[in-house]
């Protein structure tokens, strides 16, 4: 069996890696390939394109990278039209993946979308696009299935993969440790880290005993981060977020999937987000 997959964001890479692992456990001879991240590769997925080619955030960032995003999407459609899989799975990123699913579905490829957009909360008219794009919607929450059934769209509740591995910590003893999580994308790291370091300075003025650590999802921008935190007494680690989170009193985290993970681990957090100047002016 051949499965095509597309995960365009770091959060999708994390969740899809659990899906890839389960699929290969059920079908060891299954071939899974496509637009993937490091965690999906580690789970056994063959990389045709790297997630970094599509991983952007904010209005201005998307606009700047739009030509390359469109080329990437067209390349994915072309490849899987010529090398048809048994099924195509789009993971989250609906604005990127639905167009791929729609074109492949018209060419006879079965399509699945994993992680429903919040059509039940806003922009419910998107159901029209969903119905022309995907044969099956895999939902994280049971109430989402009811919404799709009312609109004649086949859907299945599969639950959130993280609930199988993350449980609230117990018997935690405060240690005056604060964890910084500036995100995974280049734009958010370079935008948020200076703000986080300003917060470190202010908090140290209030309590000099606070210990700060910083964790990165990968080492792509480790060198840049090291230069900024050098001599600031901040411990840096890569790829061990869960271990760092459960041993922290507080996490200051970039808005995103990590907030759900921290909440599931039962750790207090402050969520931060910063728009680019251009994005701010557009929203304003």
Automatic annotation (TrEMBL):
One of its GO terms (molecular function) is lipid-A-disaccharide synthase activity. One of its GO terms (cellular component) is membrane. It is an enzyme of class 2 (transferase). GO terms for biological process: lipid A biosynthetic process. Keywords: Glycosyltransferase, Lipid A biosynthesis, Lipid biosynthesis, Lipid metabolism, Transferase. It catalyses: a lipid X + a UDP-2-N,3-O-bis[(3R)-3-hydroxyacyl]-alpha-D-glucosamine = a lipid A disaccharide + UDP + H(+). Its EC number is 2.4.1.182. SUPFAM superfamilies: UDP-Glycosyltransferase/glycogen phosphorylase. InterPro entries: Glyco_trans_19. The keyword Lipid metabolism applies. Pfam families: LpxB. The keyword Glycosyltransferase applies. This is lipid-A-disaccharide synthase. It comes from marine metagenome.
């Amino acid at each position: 069996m051949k499965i095509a997959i597309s995960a365009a964001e770091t959060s999708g890479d994390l969740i899809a890696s659990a899906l890839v692992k389960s699929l290969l456990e059920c079908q060891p001879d299954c071939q899974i390939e496509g637009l993937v991240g490091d965690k999906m590769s580690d789970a056994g997925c063959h990389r045709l394109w790297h997630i970094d080619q599509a991983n952007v955030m904010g209005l201005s960032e998307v606009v700047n990278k739009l030509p390359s995003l469109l080329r990437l999407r067209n390349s994915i459609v072309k490849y899987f039209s010529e090398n048809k899989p048994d099924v195509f799975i789009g993971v989250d990123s609906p604005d990127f993946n639905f167009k791929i699913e729609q074109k492949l579905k018209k060419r006879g490829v079965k399509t699945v979308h994993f992680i429903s957009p919040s059509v039940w909360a806003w922009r419910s008219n998107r159901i029209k696009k969903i119905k022309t794009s995907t044969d099956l919607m895999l939902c994280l929450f049971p109430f989402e299935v009811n919404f799709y059934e009312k609109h004649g769209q086949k859907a299945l509740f599969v639950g959130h993969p993280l609930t199988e591995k993350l449980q609230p910590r117990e018997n935690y003893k405060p240690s005056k440790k604060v964890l910084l999580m500036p995100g995974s994308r280049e734009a958010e790291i370079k935008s948020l880290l200076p703000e986080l370091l300003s917060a470190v300075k202010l908090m140290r003025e209030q309590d000099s005993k606070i210990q700060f650590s910083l964790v990165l999802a990968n080492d792509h921008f480790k060198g840049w981060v090291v230069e900024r935190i050098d001599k600031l007494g901040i411990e840096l680690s890569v790829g061990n977020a869960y271990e760092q989170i459960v041993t922290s009193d507080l996490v200051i985290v970039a808005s995103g999937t990590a907030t759900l993970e921290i909440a599931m681990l039962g750790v207090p957090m402050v969520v931060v987000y910063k728009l680019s100047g251009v994005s701010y002016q557009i929203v304003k």
